[in-house]
TrEMBL record:
<dbReference type="Pfam" id="PF09774">
    <property type="entry name" value="MIX23"/>
</dbReference>
<protein>
    <recommendedName>
        <fullName>Protein MIX23</fullName>
    </recommendedName>
</protein>
<dbReference type="GO" id="GO:0005758">
    <property type="term" value="C:mitochondrial intermembrane space"/>
</dbReference>
<comment type="similarity">
    <text>Belongs to the MIX23 family.</text>
</comment>
<dbReference type="InterPro" id="IPR019171">
    <property type="entry name" value="MIX23"/>
</dbReference>
């Protein structure tokens, strides 16, 4: 994922694919049976598996975003130092500003992650609370 940090559009595309579990949680939860069909599907197992997938996905995305933030912050520091030694270099100034924007967007992605995570777990808990409790 670190290589994708350099290609921001590629990074956003990878995040989109990684968010697939969250995007499809409603469909996955619709596989849970209604009261009359409870005996035909192991709802506890289905909920447990979905919970594990959600946790794994959230952790992987958060680590990827934080890794890219670290890389971007490091690049920004180097560009700041270069900019201070060469104040009239237009290319360095442009690179510095672009890296600043990139860092802000990456930090905003962490906030987006929190919202997605909250929404997914809320939906999960609404449908799975009768079958599965996290931490069991």
């Amino acid at each position: 994922m670190a290589a994708l940090c350099l290609d921001f559009l590629g990074f956003q595309e990878a995040l989109k694919k990684m968010r697939d579990v969250d995007d499809k949680i409603i469909y996955a939860l619709n596989a849970l049976p209604t009261e009359s069909f409870k005996g035909q599907v192991n709802s506890e197992s289905t909920c447990r598996d979905l919970y594990a997938k959600l946790q794994e996905s959230h952790l992987a995305r958060q680590e990827s975003i934080r890794s890219c933030i670290t890389i971007s912050a490091s690049n920004l520091k180097k560009l700041r130092e270069k900019r201070e030694t060469q104040p009239d270099d237009v290319d360095t100034d442009n690179q510095f500003r672009a890296e600043q924007r990139k860092l802000r967007v990456l930090q905003a992605e962490l906030n987006v992650e929190d919202i997605i995570k909250e929404r997914s777990y809320k939906t999960f808990n609404e449908r799975c609370r009768s079958y599965f409790h996290a931490g069991q």
